[in-house]
Amino acid sequence: MKYARVEVDGTTRWGTVRDGAVQLLDGSPYDGGQPDGPERPLGGVRLLAPVTPSKIFCLGRNYAAHRSEMGYPHDDAPSVFMKGPSTVIGPGENIVLPPLSMSTHVEHEAELAIVIGKPARFVSAAEATDYILGYTCANDVSARDLQRGDPQLTRGKGFDTFCPVGPWIETELDPMAGVRLRCSVNGTLRQDGSTADMTYGIPLLIEYLTGFATLYPGDLILTGSPGGTEPLHHGDQIDIEIDGIGTLTNGVVNSDRS
Predict the structure, then answer these.
(1) Looking at residue 258, what is its pLDDT?
(2) For residue 60, what are the contacts with CB-CB under 8 A and spacing of at least 6?
(3) 57: alpha, beta or left, given left = phi > 0 and alpha = psi -120 to 50?
(4) How many Å apart are CA 121 and CA 222, to the nearest integer?
(5) CA 48, CA 220: separation in Å to the nearest integer?
(6) How many angstroms separate the Cα of 117 from the Cα of each of 35, 78, 84, 139, 226?
(7) Of 17, 57, 67, 175, which one has the fewest beta carbons inside 10 Å?
(8) 82 strand-pairing partners
(9) Mean pLDDT, the chain, as a whole number?
(10) Residue 30: phi, psi to the nearest 5?
(11) Contact 58, 82 (CB under 8 A)
(12) pLDDT of residue 123
């Protein structure tokens, strides 16, 4: 099932997506929302980011190819950092590049994102899938010059608009078996990988994270990016496609670049 957050008739609603239509719900998928009224054409609503997370955990260098291109060694434990909720934007929204005085080198990172479905603390790897609502596409946008120059990752990863997510949450997906994810910029393929190539799998990640933090419904875990990340520029269009989910599309625009 595909769960979407949409803007319709000036209000924000949850719905399920099927065959080019949205069935609105009377609540969220976290509290058992049920069909409410007639279906709406998908083209007649605006898709929003399908999550409003309290926290966003991200896995760094979880794919060997990306570790290699970044010059990082293999990690003996998951390399975790966080993005703030203000980084989240939805389908069709623009990534805003920082002023040139702050950063001149911003890159895309196509990632599979886990959406947590219920409160999770001290969850074992064997129980991990019971706490997952579903999966969505995400883009861990990164200011590489700040990432490399700062003593930690927060600023380089944390600009507003630096976490596009969408287009919806897919509940019927098994990424542990391996699903293909791709990133194209202006129609040119840049990243092409499989979740089967992750160093640390999803059950282990949930066990690791819930060992020190409580995850709440709607929280996100970005699982890492395959190789092929490259710079972004004003006017670019980014398409992140994950088999079984769909395509997340976002533009890139300059801020005041002085």
Answers:
(1) 52
(2) 72, 79, 80, 81, 153, 224
(3) beta
(4) 18
(5) 15
(6) 19, 22, 19, 21, 26
(7) 67
(8) 57
(9) 94
(10) -75, -25
(11) yes
(12) 98
Torsion 230-134-1-32 (CA) sign: negative
Q: 């040119």: which residue's tokens?
A: 188
Q: What is the CA radius of gyration of the chain?
A: 18
The predicted pLDDT at position 63 comes to 85
> What tokens were used for 97?
């590049």
24 CB neighbour count, 10 Å cutoff: 21
Q: What angle do CA 18, 39, 171 make, to 5 degrees?
A: 35
Q: Is the pLDDT of residue 68 over 70?
A: no
Structure-token pair, residue 175: 């990424």
List all residues 6 or more positions away from 141 whose beta carbon is below 8 Å from its beta carbon.
87, 95, 106, 107, 108, 109, 157, 159, 161, 162, 163, 164, 232
Which amino acid belongs to residue 26? D
Predicted local distance difference test score (pLDDT) of residue 77: 83
| Tens of pLDDT, residues 126-174 | 999 999 999 999 999 999 999 999 999 999 999 999 999 999 999 999 9
Whether residue 245 contacts residue 239, with contact meaning beta carbons closer than 8 Å, is answered with no
Show the beta-strand stretches assigned E in 129-175: 132-139, 142-143, 163-170
Instruction: Give the H/E segment covering residue 209.
Output: helix 202-210
